[in-house]
């Protein structure tokens, strides 16, 4: 068991490189990962299960005592990210409804689990980050289908009820099972909790391999569109992060909470978005979500390291 923390640290430190490396392998050798292509929803459910297991009563109480930061974070995510996403979708892909749908899905799902990891690395308030992710997860079954329906329902047929049910099964139920296990088996869960972040990252790797190998034919068929897609998703991630950071600073929110809100505003669960895109649209619609997955992990890591350096510099002064 002593080896696990070392491996976990190594994976967390180089997470963007792992994601990029696995993405390339899945793209080059898609047939190898065909057996796991049906495990995306199971793996996503596992991530939310581990999230539920990692929440502590103390963390929840601490955020409940100062709910305004959580409310600000949720408000910024669902206004800034959604408005930027819809604008980018129509500016870049007004003539391609499937790619527009993929962009919109990638910006209207809950925040990504990597937002919690990067908040920790950057010295932010992890309790607030986890609470934001939890609240996000609770409201997304209502907002995601509604926003997709309103945005692209007239162009691409959208089954809002099917998306809602999908999110309930993949996100909502595993999260509450994790909370329930904590309540009923506190001692056993306490032994597992130190490894939930590591296990979540392993589950994320399965999602990356499954999603990209499955989307490989669509990626290959649209190589000429990839530069435009990557430009679009870079803006989709970086603009909300920038606006989330400076808006929360203008509101005089403490720095550690600003860091959590920054990642929450800019990083969405694009693994979930790609799954929903394949299930309810097409493999082509999943391409923006796959690109966003790579981009938000990379930009997130860079921003986290900047925050970490600022914190270390302040501590040495």
Write up what this structure looks like.
The longest helix has 34 residues, at 283-316. The protein is mainly α and 317 residues long. The mean pLDDT is 82. 83% of the residues lie in helices and 0% in strands. The protein contains 15 helices and no strands.
Concise structural overview:
This protein has 317 residues and is mainly α. It has helices at residues 3-13, 15-28, 40-54, 57-65, 67-93, 97-107, 113-121, 126-152, 160-184, 186-192, 196-221, 226-250, 255-266, 270-280, 283-316.
What is the residue-mean pLDDT, rounded to a whole number? 82
For the terminal residues, how far apart are their CA atoms? 37 Å
* Low-confidence runs: none
Shape: globular
Strand content: under 5%
Q: Characterize the main sheet.
A: none
Secondary-structure class: mainly alpha
The residue fraction in helices comes out at over 70%
Number of strands: 0
Q: Count of DSSP helices?
A: 15
Order of helices and strands: HHHHHHHHHHHHHHH
Based on CA atoms alone, the radius of gyration comes out at 18 Å
Fold blueprint:
Layout: H1 3-13, H2 15-28, H3 40-54, H4 57-65, H5 67-93, H6 97-107, H7 113-121, H8 126-152, H9 160-184, H10 186-192, H11 196-221, H12 226-250, H13 255-266, H14 270-280, H15 283-316
Keywords for this structure?
0% strand; 317 residues; globular; mainly alpha
